[in-house]
Every structure is written in C-alpha cells, then in structure tokens.
Amino acid sequence: MEFASQESLSVLDNDDDVDNFGTFTKSISDLSFRDPEFDALTNNNSNNNGQQDSTATTSNRQQQQQHQNCVAGLFQQQAFFGGAGPIGGNDGAVGGGGAPNNQLPPTLRRNCFYEPNDPSSTNQCQKNRNQLAPIGRGVVGDLFNDDNVVTSSTNIVGNRGGQLNGSACLYCGVSEPNCVAQCGQCKRWFCNGRGNMAASHLVNHLIRAKHKEVNLHKDGHLGETLLECYLCGARNVFNLGFIPAEADSTVMLLCRQPCATSQTDTIQEMNCDPDEWKPLITDRCFLYWLLRAPDAKELARCRKVDATQISHLEDIWNDQTINDSSAFNDLDRSHMNDLTAVGCGPKTVLLRYNTTEQYREIFGPLVKMEAEYDKQMKESRNQDNIYVRWDIGLNKKILAYFNIARSDSDMRLMHGDELCLKYTFHEQTDNLSMGTPRTWTGMGHVIKIPDNYGEEVGIEMKSNFNVPTDKHTGFVVEFVWKSTSFDRMQQSLVKLANEDVVSVSPNIINRLLGRNIVDDIIIPCTLPKNFTANNLPDLNKSQIDAIKHALQRPLSLIQGPPGTGKTVTSATIVYHLSRTSNKPVLVCAPSNIAVDQLTEKIHLTGLKVVRLCAKSREAISSPVSFLALHNQLRNIEGHTELHKLQQLKDETGELSSADEKRYRILKKACERELLKAADVICCTCVGAGDPRLSKYKFQSVLIDESMQATEPECMVPIVLGAKQLILVGDHCQLGPVVMCKEAAKAGLSQSLFERLVLLGIRPLRLEVQYRMHPALSRFPSDFFYEGSLQNGINLFEREMHDIEFPWPQPTKPMFFYCCQGQEEIAGSGTSYLNRSEAAYVERITTCFLKAGVKPEQIGIITPYEGQRAYLVQYMQYNGSLHAKLYQDIEIASVDAFQGREKDIIIMSCVRSNERQGIGFLNDPRRLNVALTRAKYGIITVGNPKVLSKHTLWNHLLNYYKENGVLVEGPLNNLKPSLIQFNKIKQNNSVPMISAFMMKRHNQHQAAAAAASTGSGSGPTTTTGLQSYNTTAPNHPHQNHVRIGGLLPTPIGFGFKLW
C-alpha cells in the first residue's frame, strides 16, 4: 500500500505554516464566516436585546428580507414545489433555493405554488406550514417566504455547561433548528458555526469522523431533510451541489461526479444548466440558505471550545471501547490537560544522541505509532457485496478480478499488496431450511490496480484449493495489513542498540548519532585513472568529485538536484566499490521503482547483479525482471531436479507435500549460491531485512533516494555491517511520507539525509542538469540551488520540432495561465479540487494532442489527490477527443511524480480562496519538484491573486511576469496578464530552500534551549525530552557562523548563502 501525499484532514487546517518538522498544522484564527452585509444586519439586530421576543423576531425577519433583496436583485420571485412541474414528484422534487446567488434561504414544502403578490397563494402556504416533507431525491424551495424562519428561542447551553438540548451542537451547544444538522451516520448534531475553527463544527466533525451524510432539523425552514442527489441518490455531502433551474425558481441537488459531469443531457432536459453547478459546502461551511450560521446573540450564549477539546472528543467517539454518547460535560478536564502536556506525547527526534539505546527509545515508539495508523487505515477499507470475475493465469494460478469503491484518500493500492476474499455459503437442508453458514477464505496479492482505463483490481490467489469459481456475487474484500515492514525497522533499531552484536563501523555509528562530525577520516584506496564505468555516459567534474569523495570516506552524502545524473553517478560508485573491494555491495532505495532504475544502470556496467524482491511481487513484471532472484533460479545451470519440480509446479499449480518440501530445500540452496556469487544485491530498504540476507555482511552500502526514506527505514540495510555508507538524495526535494500526524510532528518525517545535513555534514552537489530546457531550469537553479546549476543541454536540443503550440514566448516554453475558479472540498472530505482549473487543463491538453504531441509525452500533476481523481474523470467525460487518448496521459500527484520526468508537464495548483491559505503549495520542496519534471515545456494553471500573497509564489509569479509568460485569455489569443504583485523581499536574499533549512535548524536549537534540566559537568539543553551536554565536543553552536545579523546558521549545509 502506498500513500500519495500527506494531505489527510488538510481541509481542517489553515495550513500555511510549517511546524518543527515540515508538516502542516492547524493555525486557529477567529475567521469571519458570513457575508459582511448580513453581518452588519445581524449586529444591528443584536443591539435590540431589550425588546420583547416578538419584536426581535419580526426585526430579524425584516433584516433577513433586506439581505435577500440585496443579493437577489431582479431575480424572478416565484417558487415551484412538489409534483407541479417537470422535476417534481410525489417524493419531492429538487432541494434548495432557486436564485443564482447561493446564499438565499428557501423554505422547502410540498404541493405549494407561491406568488409573492398573490394573497391566496400566501394563505395556501400558511395552511400547509406543517406539511414539511423529506427531500427524498431532491426538494423544491420557496425562496422568499420567511414565515417559517425560526429564530433563536430554543435552549442554548451557556459557557458553564448544563443539559444539552437533544438536537444541540455537541461542540458548542447551539440548538437553533436553522443552524444545526444531524450527522447521518452517527446521529450526532452539530452547527454550521465556526467558533474559532477553520471549518464549521458540522464540517469539522464530518471530516474527522469520515462521515458524509447529513439530515436537516425537522423544525428548520427546510424541514426534516436528507440531502441526496436527485438522479442517483448519492448522499455524500462533500460531493453534493445544486443547479438553479432556468424556467422556475427551483434548484436541483446533484452529485458532482458522476451525475453533474456525465448526465449533462438529462440535466438540460430538466431546464437546468450543468455549468451552473455549485457545491453545498464553500469556505468549509454549508451554504447559508441550507444551514444558517449562529448569529452574534447565539454565539454569546454558546459554549466556548477550542481545537484541542474538539479533537479529544472526536478521538473518544472514534474509540469503540468508550461510550459513544460522551459529550463535553463528561470529559475530565484535568485528564485532558494531562493529555496535552508535553511529557505525555512521543519523544521528539533529536539532532544528536548520547547512545544507540537512546536512539532506539525515540524511534521505536514512532514506528509503532505509524504501524498502528497504517493498520487502521487499511482495515477501514474493507468492502462487501463485491462481484468477482474469475480467470486462470499463465502459471495456472487462479486470478480474481473485481471493482472496489475508489477512495480519493491518501492510501492507494500497489502491486504486491495482499487482499483477502471471503464468500459465505448458505446451504439448504433436506427440509429446505437454511443450514449452518460456511465461509470460504482465500488470500491473494494484487497484480492489477485501477488506472485511467478502469477501476478493476486483479489478484492472484495463493492457492487454487476449493476456490468458488462458480460464484460471482456476494463476496467480501478485506485489506490485509502486514507488519513485516515495521517489524524489520524495529528489529534494526534493536540490533543497532546492541552494539556488541552489530558489525557496523564505530565511525559510522558515531556520525549517525551526531558525534565526531568534523573528523575527516580518509579510507586508503587506489583511485581509478578513468572514473567512467563501462557502458555509462561520460562524467562531468561535479560527478567525478562526488565519486572520489564517496570512495575515500566512511560516510558520504551526495546531493543530486533534478536531472543531474544522480542514477549514473550512483551506478558508477557501485561499480568502483565492487571492483576495488571484491566484496558484494548492497544497493537500496525506499521504492521499487527507484531500485529498478538503479539496478538497470548497474547491470550495464557488466557486474553480476541480483534484484531481490518480495515474494508477493514475483509475478509483477519490470524492466529488470530477468535479474530478479526468482527468475535467475529458473535459468541456473546444473540443477536438474529443481528444474523438474519447478516445471511440475508450473503445470499443476501445486506440488504434493513431499515434493513441496524437497522443492523448498533445493530452492534455498540455489538462492544462497546466486546471492553468494553476486557482485551487487539490489532491494528496497525494508527488503534488506529479508531473511535470505540475514547471514550476509555488506561492508559497502549505498542508499539512493534516501531523502524519501525515514531513519528507521535506512537503518535496515545499515545494520547489515556497513563500514562504508553512501547516502544519495536531495534535501531540497520532498522527504518521506508519514501518515500518522503525531509521529510526523515528532520528527519521523525528517530523513536521515536531512538530519545529517543539519548537523553540518556537507553533501557533494552534482551541478550539471541534463533534463530541462535552459529556460525552465533558471528559476529552480536561482531559488532552490543558489544559481549553481549549469545546463548540460542547449536550447536547440530541447525544441519540439514540427509541434505548433501558442507559447507566449517561443524561446521560453513555459507560462502561468491565470484562472479565477474556486476550490472545493473533494468527495473524501480530506482533499481539494478546482473544476475551473480542470477545464483549462483539458483544453491545454487537447491543444497539445491536436498539435501532434503523443499522450505518453504529457504528464499532468497536482498537489491534491481530490483534483487528480477529478481530472481523470473529467478528461474521460468532457475531453473533445477520443477517450483513449486521454487514458494514455499520466495524471498523478506532485509527490508521486518525484524522480520522474515527462516532455510536457501541466500543473493544476487547485487552491483558490480568500482566507484559507494555499496548504501544501507553500512548501518550497514541493514546488521545486513540480517545476523540475518537464524536459521541453511546463504550464501552470492557478489563481495568481491568491498565490501571490505567499513569498515563494510571489517570486515565481513576478519571474513569469518579467519574462512575459504570465498570461490570460483563450489559448489561441493569449495576452499578458495586467495583474500587479507586491514584491516581497527576502532577508539578505537567502534562497528559499536555504531559508527553509535554516528555519528547521533553528527550531531544533530553540527546542534544545527551551527545557534545560542540567546534569553532569556542564549545562544541558534538551531537544524534545532528551538532553545532551553543551560542553561536549562538536556542540552545534561551535560549528556556526553569523552572517549579516541573521540567526546562527550551520556551516556546510550543502548550499551557499547569497
């Protein structure tokens, strides 16, 4: 299972700030949550508290009528209900309000036609005031009759608590029927007010609980209503929106996907325009006409709650062992204070460690937390009532194919993941009564995953015994969680702590712990006269310098910016290590793709390479499948008995118990023979913990893409006896993905490579890039690599010949396309999408395809999984060309595209709001990855007005504007945008990544100075909960230099300070 990015619960966060370890956290502020004009009206109303309730009620209605008039304009004032029109029916027609402005508060009724100037119609409405009906699949609303607007006369709990009304908000106690709604799954009530939260209480609960259905209050102006799609009945409120009818004052509730996207003809037949679709949730609150936010009077009387209390209450509700009827009045406040105290959280990752045991004590619990979160995520995705299609593979194994509901959460199925299929037989007895149910269970690993072509998942069954291939419906799919990866990390930490057993070089251990950093130890070796390896490209000076350093040092960090030949450099280092030591070299990376790419390059040098992969991935093909251990077994010579048993197993699918035992003995012997003869063994970091490698010691270990691995992940190969360690990566790009937020905040999301850089170990940087058009590399070089990147290719090598595309500047194949569309919460409730940007992306893509660019040359990237999923669907349904062309275009998240490249990159920024920030886009490392994926051209689609408020994007947008590539208008007539930006100056012109790293280091130092406990011979400072002695050699402050009045900055960060 793989995680696309760290965006879980991101819609609850203001997420513009980076916490101690680079993850985004909530920044609670008191945000306005209503139309300013209506706020003024409400404030006027709150000044009349001394009047009688009837007077206040009348005043409130008059003020709301004034607000409606000011926003409705000259819109036709009539409403259509029930079955009296083309959308209506006995179960109610469509819900909401009929004006184009989405803030109008309608009253939902049945069988009533209202004309504002017709007294008889008004009287008829009055007679039917108790005939409020459920929406069914949509209802019709009276936009202008406010007779049923209920004012705040019900019980509201004060700040000190008290007995809550049965339908009061369980956060703040507001119980006004027009403000509260019930969660359809847990049946709890919440209001549409924010308090001091970034989202309304109702939206906050739905996101945290992963619930998606909402029922309105029976006494509210819309009646007891279940919100659902008119066409398909879907009830996911994050996916629901409305379309105003053209002929009548009605609105239709429709889901964004698939109905509003694919059912355009049906919608138009109902006199509605699909392009007018708007979401029910905007700015993280429900629309005002659907649920009113509490006014100032109600807010003054409600309970004051903070984010910590709300989070703790949601955790209690999510805990199945605790009474789920708990409310704030039931919470032990002192217990809550204990939970939020510094001492009860996980220990924070340090820069330096006193002992390997201390290292284990800090990282062990963090790995456990991530394991528990991973298990919870997988087990929550179990699905039932699945249709299964059966087949037989070439290896005679039974294959099962089925569709499962796709979630646009962060977790994605990957090849090799294990799934469990279950089927329950209900057999009848002789008297036709139902007998005892019998359940079949079968395990299998994933061989096919959903893609642009379809949602089908394929698994290969482990055993063919008793598989019910004659059954097709009623199956249950369970996601199998395996602790193997986490167990291997824990084992490596234990092994590292037991220094008597581990054979790792003491010098490497000291450096990993943060000791003896400045000692420059040289390993005696004979350097080759020619550093270029067989069948690999010639090397440039920076690559040769990096290789020299790696061959002569026990610990080396090599920084490989995008397109600088990092893989070639790594393969060359491995080649020379193998040739000079005549001992096997262990090569690892955190992902299988990275391992395969490096394995391919190493194989070209002529070395004997074995690719060791997990047994669950043996059926998955790759460019280096022929080097995989299990495939080399089939071709090994001189093992006739093994080949015969293998052939028999392939033909029959299974062996007898005796033959199977003999087969395993022979197989293990051959595996040992192949591994012993190998010059290089390649596997993932976690794969290095495979029992088949447990007897081997590897003096030379190289870890590629080490920035994307957690520290415990890197320890798995290191503890196999490393005496020479090379870490290759780029701390200016994205780090490891850690899904447990608590573990990430404690420092698990900080890679070993980054921590060593922060300690002052200077990485050797590769400085010549061979990927990007020179015009594309200039901004990343200046802002992320201090202008150090040189171009190894010229302008003419990156021209797309015979391709006509309207670039604003033909010699600069890039531009920023201005888009004013609004962001929306995605169907998962934890991500974002932007429909306007998706439409522009489709037009740009179609333009490239018409110009002759092949689909495989185009990559579409976006920071948000919600936008990625929406783009896939939108291109299929709305693309003007054949759907097959769009299916061949890769659409992925920015995080998933790290380490990849395409000829053309189109990026959708998504974020477009007035006050919620830009989230993940504010991370300079993510922008660096996004801007450096393209070889020939890049187009960015976004809202420059919103993005320019942030320093990083302000620089990029000003750069685009100065180069004449900030444009707007139709693609065939692009014109420079006239928008103006305020230039934001950087202190001392410190580059973006440099400033980011400085901030990270200063946060470590601030944490160290915050809690001094004092022990030993000198004063002690702490980082998190652990301490180290400041008088010890190589204290961080002894390796600092002050530059231009800035805070102390560590020397040797691997970057230069302008």
TrEMBL record:
CDD domains: 1B_UPF1-like, DEXXQc_UPF1, SF1_C_Upf1, ZBD_UPF1-like. Residues 1006-1024 have a biased composition (Low complexity). Keywords: ATP-binding, Cytoplasm, Helicase, Hydrolase, Metal-binding, Nucleotide-binding, Zinc, Zinc-finger. GO terms for molecular function: ATP binding; DNA binding; DNA helicase activity; hydrolase activity; RNA binding; RNA helicase activity; zinc ion binding. Residues 1-20, 37-68, 1006-1041 are annotated as: Disordered. Residues 169-201 are annotated as: C3H. InterPro entries: DNA2/NAM7-like, DNA2/NAM7-like_C, DNA2/NAM7_AAA_11, Helicase/UvrB_N, P-loop_NTPase, SF1_C_Upf1, UPF1_1B_dom, UPF1_CH/ZBD. Its main location: cytoplasm. Residues 50-61 have a biased composition (Polar residues). It is an enzyme of class 3 (hydrolase). Residues 183-211 are annotated as: CC/SHH/C. Residues 229-259 are annotated as: C4. One of its GO terms (biological process) is nuclear-transcribed mRNA catabolic process, nonsense-mediated decay. It is found in: Cytoplasm. Its EC number is 3.6.4.12. One of its GO terms (cellular component) is cytoplasm. Residues 161-320 form the Upf1 domain. Belongs to the DNA2/NAM7 helicase family. PANTHER family: DNA2/NAM7 HELICASE FAMILY (PTHR10887), REGULATOR OF NONSENSE TRANSCRIPTS 1 (PTHR10887:SF364). This is DNA helicase. The gene is UPF1.
